[in-house]
Amino acid sequence: MKIVRVFFIVVLVFVILVPCTTAKPGDYEYKIVNYVALGDSIAGGYGLEDVPKESYVGRVAAALEDRYGAVRLKNFGENGLRSDELLEILEEEDNGQHASYVEAIQEADLITLSIGSNDLLQYLSRDVNLQDLKKNGDRLFTEACRKFSENIPGILDIISRNAPNAQIFVNNIYNPCNDISFGISEEAAKNLEQMAEQYIQKLNRGFETKRVQSVFNPKKKTKNSQRYTLVDVKGAFEQSDEKLINMMISWRSIDPHPNREGHRVIAELIIPRIELNK
Questions:
Q1: Angle between helices 260-270 and 56-68 (to 10 degrees)
Q2: Residue range 206-255, pLDDT digits in tens
Q3: Could you say which DSSP state residue 258 is in?
């Protein structure tokens, strides 16, 4: 009987001293990682046979699932999307896509972004007058790079404000003309590569301006100051001996997207650097 009394005393003390925890709505989702992929057709996995398995977005999602147990992926990758169009979606409340984008970003633990290629490609992938492009191309491409450098800080600022605790990976722009497979002469391919390189370098500088850095590195440092990571896709592609780009050029037909191996390389640049507070 004495043993019984001691048992009940121990139980009573435990109940009094240990605070009662009440399950809250959504607690069962605590270990679910919310991953949002933003951007153009590269984020969307254009041209791949099995996008969930082969795309860099799908590979990152699989790695998150292995590491954290569960992942909720929302992939907003859209063919042909330019930086000004993405900025409009994020800024304009009357845009039909605005609410779904912002809601997903606000819930995100991890965000990846691929944007900028179409700011240049818009002048090559439509039915343009080649003589006019030769005459005015420098002006058009230079202006596109300037506008991109204005758009990208706005995009990242909105993402940062709506997802203050999310880790953000932003891919820079690779030169697809480094891996042209057919359709034009070797000399023409070399000229195209050199022409593309100068504008891609200008475009990529937009990711590293003081305006972009000020979004993530304010004067007063916080634990979230370093959560923006610029992924050097361009450098990785140039250093690889593999064929990573599905680059084919024929008469007014261009496919500059990464192939399956290219997406693998992008994923391998991101996955080891993921550090979520989950």
A1: 40
A2: 998 888 887 776 555 555 555 889 999 999 999 998 889 876 554 455 67
A3: B
Beta-carbon contacts of residue 192 (< 8 Å; ≥ 6 apart): 177, 180, 184, 249
Confirm if 73 and 129 have CB atoms less than 8 A apart.
Answer: no
Q: Which residue has the tokens 């989702």?
A: 29
Backbone φ and ψ of 245, nearest 5°: -120, 135
- The token duo for 127 is 């039915």
Q: Is 232 exposed, middle or buried (0-12, 13-18, 19+ CB in 10 A)?
A: middle
Residue 179 burial (CB < 10 Å; 0-12/13-18/19+)? buried
Its pTM stands at 0.81
3-state secondary structure 98-164: HHHHHHHHHHCCEEEEECCHHHHHCCCCCCCCHHHHHHHHHHHHHHHHHHHHHHHHHHHHHHHHHCC
